Amino acid sequence: QVVLVSGHLDSWDVGQGAMDDGGGAFISWEALSLIKDLGLRPKRTLRLVLWTGEEQGGVGAKQYYQLHKENISNFDLVMESDEGTFQPSGLGFSGSAEARDIVKEVMTLLQPINVTDVFDPADGTDIAYWMRDGVPGASLHTDINKYFWFHHSQGDTMTVQDPNQMNLCAAVWTVVSYVIADMEDMLPR
Q: Residue 54 catalytic?
């Protein structure tokens, strides 16, 4: 059984793609690194996917889906970060009402950093195939006021990234992915 954590690489045009969506790739990597460094071993596999080709029609995500859809019943949650890694505000979530209630409870663990909201729905080109077929999905919500200042521009460089905000995003990703992966049962469909 798998909890999938992901971001993608968008540096196909004029910018470096640091914020869109290198930040999502970095926090996904960091989440799994933190879990490993803490010596935690959840009941389910945490799988990191760094997607390619999102801007070219999601070809990387489509290929991954085609290769793994036969095991769709083993995918517990698919997570994608693609709104930059600014100040996090919560999660977008798509899934059953019962699963949403569980995710809301998980988000209460993030009260110390004031990131507890659960929005409807989850969004993400790379996880859309899975959600369409009933797998619960989560997307990181951040303060996107500055997102389009840098989106697909020469300004999308590492200088856009605020290390403190990225750490908060990584904390959200770490807590949600670990807790869901370590629950006794998979999220209800």
A: yes
